[in-house]
Design goal:
This protein has 447 residues and is α/β, with parallel strands linked by helices. The chain contains 15 helices and 14 strands. Helix 4 runs antiparallel to helix 5. It binds guanosine-5'-triphosphate and magnesium ion.
Length: 447
Amino acid sequence: MLVAVHLPGRYVDASDPFSELRALAETAGAEVVGELIQNRRLPSGKTYLGKGKTQELAGLVGTTAASLVIFDNDLSPAQIRAVEEATQCKVVDRSELILDIFANRAATHAAKIQVEIAQLEYTYPRLRAMWSHLEQVAGGAPVGIGTRGPGEKQLEIDRRLVQQRLRQLKRELGRIQGRKAREVQRRNIDYFTVGLVGYTNAGKSTLFNRLTAGGAFTHRRLFATLSTRVERWDLDGGNAVMLSDTVGFIHDLPHHLVASFRSTLEETVFAQLLIIVLDVADPNAPMQLETVYRTLDEIGAADQPRVLGLNKIDLLDDDRELLVWLNRYPDAVPISAAAGDGLDALAEVVRTEVRGDVRQVKVTMPMSDGKTIAFLEKRAEVLDRRYGDGQAELTVRIGRRQVDELLAQGAKIRINGLDPREAVKREWNGPESSPVARSPLPPSERS
Ligand SMILES: Nc1nc2c(ncn2[C@@H]2O[C@H](COP(=O)(O)OP(=O)(O)OP(=O)(O)O)[C@@H](O)[C@H]2O)c(=O)[nH]1
Ligand SMILES: [Mg+2]
């Protein structure tokens, strides 16, 4: 039985207020037998729902024989207990439901640790508070939602042991994060990195599989992806980037989950360019895009250039909807990850961003500077190589971005025989600017 209390200011999908909660519940393995809404200015302190509505809920639970009540809101342990007593049915809130899905889907060691941390911090105190009355609640939930937590046995162990376990898990996670951070750093030097981000179910993994050798799991249910995957994406014209796919965003993500999944997101989010994948066929697309922007801000990914991919255009009934989006976001790229449409246009935008403006120049450096030589061989197109006098002179086609990166690394180079900054001024004239922000789509790609 799904329950939502609509409070002023909270987002509601007017056409189908339960669409997201229903999808979450089904993802967790529940079958939905009924839905109940109440509009309130404030939640009731005791049962969140008002008194009359709580009775109505108890009646509905009885007639539908529901074995679990799922709230779209987050309740306090005391409120959950009160509703359980009034309905004689197990109750979970939205955060617990999401945690349950994560627990069920977590496949990697890091994801499992992150889920356990979130559960110990969120579910454990609630189960503890409810412990005294759990036996009185009829039935329990056969689907197991809310029971895959730390486990009832663990409830019995001393609080201090939980704290100890938390410390241990966090240490372990810290080690994994440190290793990941070093990997990401190395990748960012060797390659230009591009991250796919977006609301859950937007089609990130489907797009990822289209663009790379693939291997990402895709599904019509929510949170199909819980860890990050990185593969090479060959853009035509000799450029390759590293593309990453990661866990999706959702509105009102429990802050415990945000904290523990941050490291998973960071891998993608510290990419040098973000592709935001948006399901424009979803009636909630505007809210979903806003959630993506807000989440990116929250996790400190506000500065990279972004490309907006308007996905699932194959599902739109007519072009007008797409035109509305393009009107609002003229630089966005309409795509269909499933049908493979618009991917060339997307690659073109990324290519422009990877290179900045490309020029052919002669770069000289000491032959001992293997790091710079390796960078040029990997990241620029080398047309000619001359060595002598302890100097290497490479003739390269190179983008402004790569030159800036070399200088940021402190490389001792000369370009066309000049001080590199002077050469940049002459060759590329003018300050750095983002090609993405000013690359309008060719009209032919807009249909
Ligand atoms: N019709 C259509 N369906 C698509 C398209 N792209 C993805 N889908 C479908 O949308 C669903 C979700 O796709 P995923 O690629 O798993 O989405 P995701 O963004 O990775 O989702 P999470 O990993 O759960 O966050 C799947 O059923 C896909 O087949 C598209 O362009 N058109
Ligand atoms: Mg995915």
